[in-house]
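DATA SHEET
Item: assembly model
Revision: 1
Owner: S.N.
Input lines:
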Amino acid sequence: MKIVIVGGVAAGMSAAARARRLAEDAQIVVLERGPHVSFAACGLPYHLSGEIADADDLLLHTPASLQSALGLDVRTHSEAVAIDRAARTVRVAGPQGEYDEPYDALLLAPGAVAVAPPLPGLDLPAVRTLRTVADAVALRERVDAGARRAVVLGAGFIGLEAVEALRHRGVDVDLVERAPQVLPPLDPELGALVAGELADHGVRVRTGVSATGVEEAPDGGMVVVLDDGSRLPADLVVLSVGVRPDSALAAAAGLDVDARGAIVVDAAQRTSDPHVWAAGDATAVVHAVTGARGPVPLAGPANRAGRTAADSMLGAEVASPPVLGTAVVRVMGLTAAVTGANAAMLADVEHHTLHLHGGHHAGFYPGAQAVHLVVHVGTDGRLLGAQAVGREGVDKRIDVIATAVRAGLRATDLADLELAYAPPYGAAKDPVNMAGFVAQNVLDGTLALWHARDLDAVRASALVLDVRGDAEWASGHLPEALHVPHTQLRDRLDEVVAAAAGRPVRVHCASGVRSYLAHRVLVAAGLDSASLSGGMQTLRAVHPDLDLVTDADRVPQPA
Amino acid sequence: MKIVIVGGVAAGMSAAARARRLAEDAQIVVLERGPHVSFAACGLPYHLSGEIADADDLLLHTPASLQSALGLDVRTHSEAVAIDRAARTVRVAGPQGEYDEPYDALLLAPGAVAVAPPLPGLDLPAVRTLRTVADAVALRERVDAGARRAVVLGAGFIGLEAVEALRHRGVDVDLVERAPQVLPPLDPELGALVAGELADHGVRVRTGVSATGVEEAPDGGMVVVLDDGSRLPADLVVLSVGVRPDSALAAAAGLDVDARGAIVVDAAQRTSDPHVWAAGDATAVVHAVTGARGPVPLAGPANRAGRTAADSMLGAEVASPPVLGTAVVRVMGLTAAVTGANAAMLADVEHHTLHLHGGHHAGFYPGAQAVHLVVHVGTDGRLLGAQAVGREGVDKRIDVIATAVRAGLRATDLADLELAYAPPYGAAKDPVNMAGFVAQNVLDGTLALWHARDLDAVRASALVLDVRGDAEWASGHLPEALHVPHTQLRDRLDEVVAAAAGRPVRVHCASGVRSYLAHRVLVAAGLDSASLSGGMQTLRAVHPDLDLVTDADRVPQPA
């Protein structure tokens, strides 16, 4: 058995190692066009930041270590330039020239390539992507040499990691994102929190604009020109506007490739040629929630797919799981994480959206930080996706929900999860449990929600009832709202009825907990009531420019 | 509808609040024999430690706040002393004397009481449990007043929290545990890690011994006498040897109570009387893995059961989920957590046990800490339980596995969980995923394990093969082991065959990763091989007194 693997990073190396463990006698050749195999691509931003001081620490294995540990024939600087599927050979351009390498089974794991828009100036030496060890080293050397102004183009995961790394080094950063918000995989109400954190750390966030080119400046630096006319001086530019599948070799060999350029594979990672498999960022995967097929460039699923491909090449009946797209990023002191479908992916699916702001641990134990959680729930109770932003415990909650989605749990089942509780770690009713309780209440009609995005319509047709305490009301409230603290609501129902004057009542508090209690009182009184999902916290994130009335005399002053 | 609830802490208050949200017009009376309702019982150790400076922060609600927010009639210092089930009344001993309170539905949520062994001296004023706010305040006042020597009786969750709190205050601590190890819910190989952490922080851990009494000492302090003859001087004693259901009221009323004294309830929390429900630490619950019925005193399930009881009292068809016993405790710098069944609970169940020591985040990112993970897997692949100990990321992994167990996932499904990965948060192959891969390999025969507990038998009948690197070998190895680093194994197979001389080969490395690779090479060479689960790390935890040969000349010295 002769296995040839094109690409020696995540999917390719996972496949090679798994194949060896299953087949000690197989001949396994790994062709890697770059200088390194098995390097820590996800660690590159942390070399730029200086946290990973030595770039060699990003090199997890060498061809020599892979030969001795796993008996792999790993060839770097060796590019697969063509496949002869009839002859079952790969044409390799290596350090000593070109040659044909025969295979019994071929795995294509070439990964993705950075998208480079057709803009003038992107070929300047101080414009880099952050995809290779050489990129990270080059960017770091420029910072070491005194670069003090950076422009990061693209506010996705890699772009934000680059921003963080550059700020960590004290570099002044402009962040440019074509979409209306940073980190577009997040729903807008959570993206706003990330944007706020960036601004708090001195990053100039410019959304809804694109670069039109990069020019050399008289001072030896550069100027990034935007389509709104802005001109941003820069000593270096990080290009992180996305990646696309590197499927040219597959397409040239006549293998099926989809409209977005991703190699088409079945669940066992087999391409349209029964002797050729593909795995990783170059392939189209199936989304676990939406069923959509397309590339999802993430390390975990790539490694998993490589393992599946090895099993399949060696004859096992296996299937890669559909992909949830679980991802996490650290942005200064915040963590943002996602799993499953977001609002954009659910644009055509009727569903409920729940907003919670529970503490990452018990409120009575010092240091509790809010986990800002958004959960999408099908009208049939299906758990569709979740996102969270906060300072502590965000990755844990998303991992729990990702496990629940993978297992096919319903949103209401989140109420029954029995999670580890002691005051430093969580709450007896964890935010994830609370999401389950809210889902139960929404699905069975105990709770009706209204949403921050519907504010204008609500203001036009309903009584807005603010049930927060006096100090919260004074610190900023909607000018037309009626204020009745929830603790006084039972005694002051007649005021509410009078103010509503037949209109629906749309109640809110700070986070949605007290307004739920108020909602139950209002419903029992026969009123048409709904409670604001996520309360004032979510309202302010969705409407950052909202005009609120403050009553400074009534706000308690710090002693 | 008139609801009377006996007990105003976890289950009772959850039920009261839920009942109000569902039934605005219900009359809801909560009878609490103590001075506080809805206090943070789990927070008591952190008042003793000083982390929660003000004991008032442990009081989450007052009767007045519960009246205004939820319309509850909460009566403290009011003990239910008898139930007349025929008349549907509760006899209450309150501040103004005794009276009968009628009910339509009665919920018993009296909780548990501390087990107090019949030993002389436990009535001394400086001997306290840690169950009430008064306990925490009293213990703290003694420390504030200069107590410097403490004996903690019982090394369960509360006992360890008390030890940590006392060490935090600089108090000298002897910890006494009747069982052979601290934290008996942990399997011994993980319990050893907790014991080591305690010892590293100056705690004198005394396992396998019991107190026989507490005596007053001439210096005004006390002496705790143990059954091994030890006499431990102490200024205060914390009694934390366990709790039992507080079911006297229920039993006296003729309700079904099991052999351990727990009130028998159905899944809807209903007792043997259709007008009486019970919830929380006083009841018997069903274990989700073993199916055993018994008390499991944990806050999360208690709150959940209170909610179920309220729903059921108000006519809904509901069921509390079976209980996994998920729990977590901080012990100095370590976290220990459990979910599902442990080895003791599986004594009569054939199963596999997996040991892993993966990093809590990517190894190339600085600061990775081992998550010492034990996973029990049925021979049919069922996920039975897991435990973990480590410095970071322990609660996250146990929460993920608790979710997987609750959802009925198989152990092999852990391989497919798509968890949030970025270098500061996890690994592309998380320790939980790795447990799934190992489970796959063990269940399909790709990997055969041997266990540290079988060391004697292995030494008597097999070749022990150590495949670690030279420096690891030199730092300590079994005297009779053959040393062949895994990177040299393919070239030196003849040495192994000769040394085995027909015996099985039992291979190990430090954690079990490299010995798995070696195992595959040995199997391909036709040898009878097995790999040590958890490697030398687990071996040393199970056999702390193991005589290892060190070769100091070959150990690299720190520069």
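QC remark: Residues 127-241 of chain A form a domain with the FAD/NAD(P)-binding domain fold (CATH 3.50.50.60).
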